Amino acid sequence: MPIPLGTLERMRSISDVVIRLEEPLAPYTRFGIGGPAAALCDAATAGAFAELLHLVCQQQIPHVVIAGGTNLIVSDDGFDGAVLRFRGERVTVGGERINAEAGASLQAVVNASIAAGLQGMQTMTRIPGSLGAAVYGNAGAYGHSIQERVERVVFTDGGQERMLDNAGCEFHYRESLFKRRKDWVVLTAELSFEPGDRAELQRAADEIKAIRDAKYPPAMRCAGSIFKNCLFNELPPEVQAQIPPKLVRDGKVPSAYFLEQVGAKGMRRGDIQVAGYHANLIYNDGAGTAEDLVSVIEDLKERVFDRFGFAVEEEVQYVGFERVAV
Ligand SMILES: Cc1cc2nc3c(=O)[nH]c(=O)nc-3n(C[C@H](O)[C@H](O)[C@H](O)COP(=O)(O)OP(=O)(O)OC[C@H]3O[C@@H](n4cnc5c(N)ncnc54)[C@H](O)[C@@H]3O)c2cc1C
């Protein structure tokens, strides 16, 4: 275990921090896959989280931050270090703004916005996970993403509490500065909205909920889309020429279009299954392993590259792998 006893004692002494040693991570992920963390550390307040992060950085303890675990592939060997979670979930509505802690579920923020008659997040209903991770990955659906709402983000860099405005977050499709600065952890976000009709917003959210629950049954152990969609302008010209124009939406082509053509649908390895109805949806259909999951992903990437000459890129994030870490 790479966490010296003295450091562990100091971590434990931070108030509002709960530490579990050798904790299996599978139950903390939607895939239900992953070996143990040397220490799983939950901080209930922003102050406690900042102190914890500062300590592990200072002591050079290997660490990763996770939240709801809905977009993670955790290695079968787990993570030999500290896995940190910020659990603060306060959501405060004031006028046309919402200020919320990173550990709040995105759905709680969506619900609060609808209840307050604020429009702008109703299409994000049923995107699982936390607000903090939604900022990190610029989560979105139906042509909208969180970047349209973010006014400012308060984060810790492991030393100080800092703030970024929307431009400073450098949002792009499923990208933000936080994806490149893994040592920066979102603590709170302030979001702004326009006034809307509460009943209409609820109706729109309910419609989307029904569609999404059919596509991703709530008990399905998956991460939503494994691969990001492809930006049309970044595809090789000969590939662009093959794409039916109606498939291009908001400048993006569904990765599923390419995955389907290389035989992804229905593929299975061990208990890892690619959905028969959606080539970009992979789920754990029993006692699936990270090894099989990663091998299916690698296989699909290779097939797309061999056939189309470009690489599809994962949206899902890895924990405990040498090659790619969160
Ligand atoms: C059924 C299903 C459907 C989905 N549909 C969509 C969709 O429509 N659109 C979409 O965008 N996504 C979708 N996703 C993916 C997932 O919901 C998002 O990526 C979500 O934002 C992940 O949140 P999480 O709290 O579970 O994060 P985790 O999976 O725990 O972590 C994801 C990443 O966020 C980082 N992170 C977590 N908290 C913080 C923080 N406070 N500060 C900085 N970094 C942090 C972690 O280090 C990690 O790299 C779907 C997933 C599932 C299972």
Outline:
Helices cover 27% and strands 27% of the residues.
Question: What does this protein look like?
Answer:
Strand 11 and strand 12 form a beta hairpin. The protein is globular and about 60 Å long. It has a five-stranded antiparallel sheet. It has a four-stranded mixed sheet with strand order 1-2-5-3, covered by helices on one side. Strands 15-20-19-18 form a four-stranded antiparallel sheet. Helices cover 27% and strands 27% of the residues. The site of flavin-adenine dinucleotide has 32 residues, from helix 4, strand 9, strand 13 and strand 15.
Please identify the top-level CATH class of the largest domain: Alpha Beta
Describe the oligomeric state of these chains in a short phrase.
single chain
The biggest sheet amounts to:
5 strands, antiparallel
Mean of residue pLDDT values = 96
CATH architecture of the largest domain: 2-Layer Sandwich
Bound ligand species: flavin-adenine dinucleotide
- Fraction in beta strands: 25-35%
Helix content: 25-40%
Helix-and-strand structural type: alpha+beta
N to C succession of SSEs: HEEHEEEEEHEHEEEEHEEHEEHEHEEEHE
Number of helix segments? 9
Number of domains: 3
Q: State the CATH topology of the largest domain.
A: Uridine Diphospho-n-acetylenolpyruvylglucosamine Reductase, domain 3
Instruction: List low-pLDDT spans.
Output: none
Q: Per the principal axes of the C-alpha atoms, what is the gross shape?
A: globular
